[in-house]
Amino acid sequence: MRKIAISRKESFNAAHRLHCDSLSLEENINLFGKCNNPNYHGHNYTLIVTLIGVPDLVTGLLLDIRKLSEIIKAEVVERLDHKNLNLDVPEFKNLNPSAENMAFVIYDILRKAIEPQFDLKIRLYETENNFVDYPYL
Amino acid sequence: MRKIAISRKESFNAAHRLHCDSLSLEENINLFGKCNNPNYHGHNYTLIVTLIGVPDLVTGLLLDIRKLSEIIKAEVVERLDHKNLNLDVPEFKNLNPSAENMAFVIYDILRKAIEPQFDLKIRLYETENNFVDYPYL
Amino acid sequence: MRKIAISRKESFNAAHRLHCDSLSLEENINLFGKCNNPNYHGHNYTLIVTLIGVPDLVTGLLLDIRKLSEIIKAEVVERLDHKNLNLDVPEFKNLNPSAENMAFVIYDILRKAIEPQFDLKIRLYETENNFVDYPYL
Amino acid sequence: MRKIAISRKESFNAAHRLHCDSLSLEENINLFGKCNNPNYHGHNYTLIVTLIGVPDLVTGLLLDIRKLSEIIKAEVVERLDHKNLNLDVPEFKNLNPSAENMAFVIYDILRKAIEPQFDLKIRLYETENNFVDYPYL
Amino acid sequence: MRKIAISRKESFNAAHRLHCDSLSLEENINLFGKCNNPNYHGHNYTLIVTLIGVPDLVTGLLLDIRKLSEIIKAEVVERLDHKNLNLDVPEFKNLNPSAENMAFVIYDILRKAIEPQFDLKIRLYETENNFVDYPYL
Amino acid sequence: MRKIAISRKESFNAAHRLHCDSLSLEENINLFGKCNNPNYHGHNYTLIVTLIGVPDLVTGLLLDIRKLSEIIKAEVVERLDHKNLNLDVPEFKNLNPSAENMAFVIYDILRKAIEPQFDLKIRLYETENNFVDYPYL
């Protein structure tokens, strides 16, 4: 009855702009610099989704990794890939699409789609050099 | 007296087939799809072994990383590299060589070979996109 | 009218055994060592396919990279992924599935599937540390 | 008097949309699919710039790699990083920002900035799996 | 009020020699082998710095990742890059510059420079195959 | 009778200092900046060695990749790994150990060790972002 973690990596490409409607133009520029470009910029995002639980004793699988891949593609990649996060994704209509907020949004989407017996963690790379982990452990 | 983790990456190449003798042919195909190919397929496995403990106050080493590399090669790579996991490795004679089960087997082998003052964790990549961690934290 | 090269990376997982029927068992072992394991071993192969030509003046594309990806998947990945190269792939029934021979076979398959106005090159990684290029320039 | 090639890798993040003004909306969608999203998507582009020539006999350098890095940053990264290629970059006002066209534009910019005794080549990665080389050899 | 972790990767190149003044020449050679070469050897070190905390509710940022990058460059890269750790860095005058000790030194430097509301973790790669994590979780 | 290229990747860690005895201290500092640090700095060098020729018709191998690995380790890694290039390697006693000069030296060493029926090329990475190719095609 040993707990293990399995992880799957997927990716998507999106445009975004760091911007808060509640702040002035000047404050937005001061806070976000070139990331506030009103015409947007973009990234190849890489997402690692981790499930934690006890593998099935007969099959030796926690969850078929192809099934996990399908869930990530259906729930996350389908919504975010080749999209403008600010304009095309309802969750970011009033929420700054920072990597931190993206992680919260993606986690909440996946948490509903992943069966509750599995603990869930995600890592989101905005670039090769910048990434976030939620939950943080 | 500060605890630290050191990690070493090694790799091995092996053939395997996902298959459970206790299930019917049809159940095996339904569960494992093309991974159930009776003629086997294979992977370049990448293994990261992590030791946790307090470094020696004189040398500043937790364990000589070359020594850790030698242990992994002697205990794991020697047993699994260029092998058919199902046919050549006794631990998988009656155990499906899923990444999850491989992690348990490799952990148990290394746990006996690593001195008990060190905590031990492993990560096993089956492909660049699929990996498991045991223990899960 | 400037020529350019576009490249697409795909991957597949397969088992194989280096073995020549025309040689004795002893010669096979001497030549191929552990790669001659009669029970097979395996790899995550990574394939990079390069097309060279003049992009369309209107669209600015040499070939839609999604179309190139589909061709590689249909012609190569479908035939080799999760297969035993020696047993499941007719081209290697009497041909040692070395990386060199695999490159020749894959090139010949793709050459028929890629329109003749494009020059074609492939790179095949057997591991992260070993790869072949055909043609060699 | 031996010729050698030196290469430097830099990166930039940009939004773009594949679109040809000379084609109808329907043709654009048929040709470019989700890459035609009117709200743009984006990428982390990776650029490798290669210079070929004979190193200085005294210093043993073809060109100080830090100087090459500065040229790429000043001429390419400054113009494209955190930009919308279609809206913010004059070269793409009437030119579809495909990877092929981007390679031609970047090459032409760098060719003017690099001294003529050096041959020049570039590789541009749009994603880890898609890249172009110009010139093609 | 959800805690998240953000991480930034930076790198530096340095020479070092594993050596303890309190040990004899013979003991140093026995312990450290070729890493004890009196003329030094070197590495491209890669450093990942992780901050943990609650993002700002307005901006959606834990800390501007460009700010984190600047702190790492000012506090760590500036001190260690293109340096001889044993000769040029005061912290290692009487401390063996093992990866473990480097992690402790870098952590202590960053801990003073990072505001106390953030938890801090670092990972230091000495090579692609060897790395340390401090704290160990 | 088709020509193919096979490549093998190996690595070594070394200290060096960019410096020309024929230049003044001031000229050395102006030319090489922090790379001229008299106490040296260092790198994890990655070397890719490529052989070109016609594979053996019976075995389907150009050269056993394990044999190529052994040649690189015996001829290059043994001489350069965990060394100070300026002090420990005779070839650089009067030659600035720039990546360009290192490529020439490594090529000349390997050219004598590789049978003449094979064409030879090398790529040397000084860092992930800087590399040289010799010959240049």
In short, what is this structure?
The structure is a homohexamer of 137-residue chains. By secondary structure, the first copy, chain A, is an alpha+beta fold. Chain A has 4 helices and 5 strands.
Describe this structure in words.
- Six copies of one chain form a homohexamer.
- Chain A has 137 residues and is α+β, with helices and mostly antiparallel strands.
- The first copy, chain A, has one domain: 2-Layer Sandwich (Tetrahydropterin Synthase, Chain A), CATH 3.30.479.
- Chain A has four helices and five strands; from the N terminus they run βαβαβααββ.
- A five-stranded mixed beta sheet of chain A has the order 3-1-2-4-5.
- In chain A, β4 and β5 form a beta hairpin.
- In chain A, α2 crosses α4.
- The two termini of chain A are 22 Å apart.
- Chains in contact: A-B, A-D, A-E, B-C, B-E, C-D, C-F, D-F, E-F.
- The interface between C and D is medium-sized, with 23 and 26 residues.
- β5 of chain A pairs antiparallel with β1 of chain E.
